Amino acid sequence: MQGSELVLEQVTKSFSGAPAVDAVSLTVRPHEFLTLLGPSGSGKTTILRMVGGFLSPDTGRILIDGVDVSGVPVERRPTAMLFQQLSLWPHLNVSRNVSFGLELRHRPKQEIARRVHELLSVVGLAELGSRLPAQLSGGQQQRVALARALALEPRILLLDEPFSALDTKLRVELRTFVRSLQREVGTTTLLVTHDQEEALELSDRIVVMRDGHVEQVGSPTDIYETPATTFVAEFLGAMNFFTGAASGQQVRLAGDVAVPVDEGVLAAGDRLEMGVRPEDVVLDADAGLPARFTVEEVTSKGHFRALRLRCGALDLRAFVDKGVVVAPGDDVAVRFRKVHLFGSGGGGQVAPEAAAERPVAAPSAMAVRGASGTSGSGSRP
Amino acid sequence: MSVAASVEVPGWNAPTSRARSVLRVGMRVGQVVLFLAAVFFIVAPLGWLIVLAFSRGFSFPSLVPTSFTLSWWHTVLASPGLLHSVVLSVTIAPVVLAVSMVICLPAAYAIGRYNFPGKRFVLLSVFSINAFPRISLYIAMIPMLFLLNLMGTVIGVVVVQLIGTILFMTWIPATGFAAIPEELVEAARDAGASKVQVFWRVLLPLCRPSIAVAAVLSFLAAFDEAQGTFIVGAPNYLTMPVRMYSLVLDYPVQFAAVFAVVLSIPSVVLLILVRKHLFAGTSAAMHLR
Known about the structure:
The structure holds two protein chains of two kinds. Helices cover about 20% and strands about 30% of the residues of chain A. Chain A has helices at about 45-50, 95-105, 110-120, 140-150, 170-185, 195-200, 220-225, 230-235, and strands at about 5-15, 20-30, 35, 60-65, 65-70, 80, 155-160, 190-195, 205-210, 215-220, 240-245, 250-255, 260, 270-275, 280-285, 290-300, 305-310, 315-320, 330-335, 340-345. Chain A has a six-stranded mixed sheet with strand order 6-7-8-3-9-10, with helices on both faces. Chain A has a five-stranded antiparallel sheet with strand order 13-12-11-14-20, with no helix packed on it. Chain A has a five-stranded antiparallel sheet with strand order 15-19-16-17-18, with no helix packed on it. In chain A, α2 packs parallel to α4 and α3 (about 110-120) crosses α4 (about 140-150). In chain A, about 45% of the residues are buried. Chain B has two domains: about 15-70, no CATH class; about 80-290, MetI-like fold, CATH 1.10.3720. Chain B has helices spanning about 5, 15-55, 70-80, 80-115, 120-130, 135-145, 155-180, 180-190, 195-225, 225-235, 240-250, 255-285, and strands at about 55, 65-70. The two termini of chain B are about 25 Å apart. The interface of A and B includes residues 91 and 133 of A.
């Protein structure tokens, strides 16, 4: 069905002088499910609201199928928004909520009735057409809101953290539903969320945003496996960071721990930021680093165990299989299944909430990417 | 009366079954107390008034009238000028209500939905109308009404009665408009509604309960207004309350009782008319977060 292309060209928006979105360019392909992921204040919602027409960009253009819609008012945009808050009109019953937009378009009564029934069936609420929104659960209300958005036959569907007001079980259920529905209907979809799990599960591609600019664009796998910056690395999943210096095929960390890396492009003496995902830390007595780590803390996380390891100044988090037997005080040898190297160029600070485990503040610019060993298939946090 | 018992309190953690039954009994008791209070303070005086209007002799020690009569009604209904008063009252009050809505509702909408410079000042001045004895305001208005040639005219009476409605018609709907979440407006815009359509299809229906309440209070304020109406309208335009004041002083109390009963009729009719809006609206409003 609908599958339109959405293009943002150098879109900028400031609020009272402070740029919320800073010259962002972006292309959402037809039929694509694209997620804007970032912490609050990263500009993701501002972008969504500009696409929907609730805000207008200061500069730059927004094109839908090649047509500039920047000056088109909300009510005439070919977009439909699913809001974060439950936003059904409380004085209209479920059917009237869904038919609202169709009535405004003066569609014939029979067609409206047929379409409303069709849409309510799609979201599994065909029986509840005469209920008032207050008589529905939160999940049902959001389904009705989805039907209402789809009734407009939007070319671009905008989802503004639509699952955040729901409890965990409903959230997972509804987003699975939305994903399969989107695949079926094929509407180009733009989702805003700060929930990495949601982004990884739903998206064809993820745009990681920070301070009003795009930090990285890529498929969920790309972004998780090869984060472009330390910010991305920390925002999606967990990551241990160490500062070190390159020396030949090795990176020397504090305490003279040397980590071997495959790539031969490292210039000796380069300052580096090395990242290791906790699930890429393997307890291995034979092929370990030339350093012993002491187990400081063992926490059961259900399907895996989280360890806190220490070697001198090095603090390391590891996620290991729940079958691994370790206790605080044990000395273990570790191997890194995969390491990520980030150049020590910029000086940007990483968002504090994600930086809890980090021994030092990380530079933001990416220079070198490195990996050793096999690409890990370890469990994600 | 069972409505109150089934209301669910949002954010209320489900209590244990014992606590729940205690709660239920408590609510039942509360209902009964409320009901008795309503009977004692509202129904009983009205009933007494009606009985009084038909009684010949009815004074303190006896709890029921000693004998009944229709003579007070004959006297009241036959009194010269009564019909004129009734016609005046039942025409002026609705006109005042309509004018008040036309003037105050747009203001209420602006106050409720927008921020503008001087908003606090507007609210404060609207409030201050009711914060002082009304009589001084009327007296202060007299020179102005003379200047505008409105003393002793129907328009003058309408103007003076309007004053008592402004607070209700502005303040109550303004809070109603303000309570409507912005998402509901945005969702309507998103669905293709223009700003005007949003007003008529979303904001106004959701504000209906507040407007209904304001309309009832405003109507009664205008309908019952006697001081200002007397100052401005006498001797040509004596509405029912104005006439009643003079009767209370000159005739037996039964005479005033008859008048009071007659005076209550429009209020009762109005309440019956807007009842649907009040209650339909309240339930819709409660669904708002």
